[in-house]
């Protein structure tokens, strides 16, 4: 059961950004000054939950490499997706580690050149692994030009330009893999707020009660990562547009959850490249109850956009079913005439 309650209250906001460091390569044995900050600024970075800690005491030497080592060039645009199968066994091993995180990457590596055509969220993920392989994203042919990393998958905001994605072996590992590289809209796609779009959020006309059942199965994955969540969400979403009057609180909860489904809740104030993430909640495990609260402390009725998302897409229609109930449940005595007056 997915339930929305409205009540008077206040709520705090949660935010997070992961700034990444940049240092120029001027020779592995020289004392290295800090690399000037990128014009692009901070990059939100989201990874899977399974990332391992850094190797204690590991300090990778700095290595520049020939950009021509790239085996394939991929063009990345919004909504593009490429899947490649390859094997690092027998490949060259010359990159022992990277500046962005302290892992011993002494195994052989393979490099892919990415031509990103516009600012977007870049996703890269490994699957079908038989060895412990990792991912590193560089904006130059230099191990100190690392701007993102992950044990299995990551999503990060990148500007248009050329990047190098490295599949490397942890502590000498080598083996086959499947690599997915895709591009996604920055922020919340405008289509969600466009009532004429096929992707438009489902309107919930508060204070009228409405109950509905939807499934996350087959839904487009319109948001994977944002500054308020450091964990990747690769499932598709159901979006709702909810009108919230002033000095009332939105309480949303997912309580009836199919076995194996790991949901989460996003709440935004609109669409576009940089809407405010009003709230994000994730209990952190499959089948766990999710509760989100947010209050409208302003003087006017606002429309907010609520998404039910999942860590991984459900495998069947039934595995992804969620039920939404939106009864009018004020927690203070309010007359119906006062409630109607809010919408005049």
What is shown here, in short?
The chain has 344 residues and is mostly beta strands. Helix content is 2%, strand content 36%.
> Would you state the CATH class of the largest domain?
Mainly Beta
Strand content is: 35-45%
Q: Could you give the order of the helices and strands? A: EEEEEEEEEEEEEEEEEEEEH
Number of E-state strands: 20
Task: Report the mean per-residue pLDDT as an integer.
Answer: 81
Any idea of the CATH topology of the largest domain? Answer: Jelly Rolls
Structural class: mainly beta
Kindly report the spatial arrangement of strands forming the biggest sheet: 13-20-1-15-18
**Could you give the distance between the termini?**
32 Å
**Rough outline:** elongated
Q: Could you name the ranges where pLDDT drops below 50 across 5 or more consecutive residues?
A: 3-38
CATH architecture of the largest domain: Sandwich
Number of helices: 1
- Strand count, sense and closure of the main sheet? 5 strands, mixed
Attribute tags:
344 residues, mainly beta, Jelly Rolls, 2 domains, 5-stranded mixed sheet, 5-stranded antiparallel sheet, elongated
């Amino acid at each position: 059961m997915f339930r929305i309650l409205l009540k008077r209250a206040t709520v705090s906001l949660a935010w997070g950004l992961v700034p990444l460091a940049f240092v120029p390569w001027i020779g592995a044995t020289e004392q290295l000054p800090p690399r000037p900050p990128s014009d692009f600024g901070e990059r939100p970075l989201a990874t899977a939950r399974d990332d391992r800690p850094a190797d204690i005491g590991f300090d990778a030497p700095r290595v520049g490499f020939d950009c021509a080592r790239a085996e394939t060039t991929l063009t990345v645009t919004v909504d593009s997706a490429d899947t490649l199968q390859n094997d690092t066994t027998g490949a060259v091993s010359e990159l022992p580690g990277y500046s962005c995180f302290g892992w011993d990457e002494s195994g052989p590596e393979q490099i892919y050149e990415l031509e990103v055509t516009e600012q977007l969220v870049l996703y890269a993920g490994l699957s079908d692994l038989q060895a412990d392989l990792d991912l590193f994203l560089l904006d130059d042919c230099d191990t100190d030009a690392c701007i993102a990393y992950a044990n299995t998958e990551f999503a990060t905001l990148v500007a248009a330009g050329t990047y190098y994605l490295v599949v490397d072996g942890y502590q000498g590992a080598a083996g086959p893999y499947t690599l997915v590289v895709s591009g996604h809209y920055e922020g919340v796609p405008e289509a969600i707020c466009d009532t004429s779009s096929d992707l438009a959020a489902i309107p919930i006309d508060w204070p009228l009660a409405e109950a509905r059942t939807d499934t996350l199965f087959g839904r487009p994955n319109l948001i994977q990562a944002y500054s308020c969540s450091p964990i990747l969400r690769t499932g598709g979403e159901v979006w709702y547009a909810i009108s919230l009057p002033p000095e009332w609180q939105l309480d949303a909860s997912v309580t009836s959850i199919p076995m194996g489904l790991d949901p989460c809740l996003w709440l935004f104030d609109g669409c576009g490249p940089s809407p405010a993430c009003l709230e994000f909640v994730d209990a952190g495990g499959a089948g766990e109850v999710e509760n989100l609260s947010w209050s409208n402390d302003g003087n006017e009725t606002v429309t907010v956009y609520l998404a039910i998302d999942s860590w991984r897409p459900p495998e069947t229609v039934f595995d992804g079913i969620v039920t939404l109930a939106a009864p009018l449940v004020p927690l203070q005595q309010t007359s119906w005439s006062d409630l109607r007056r809010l919408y005049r």
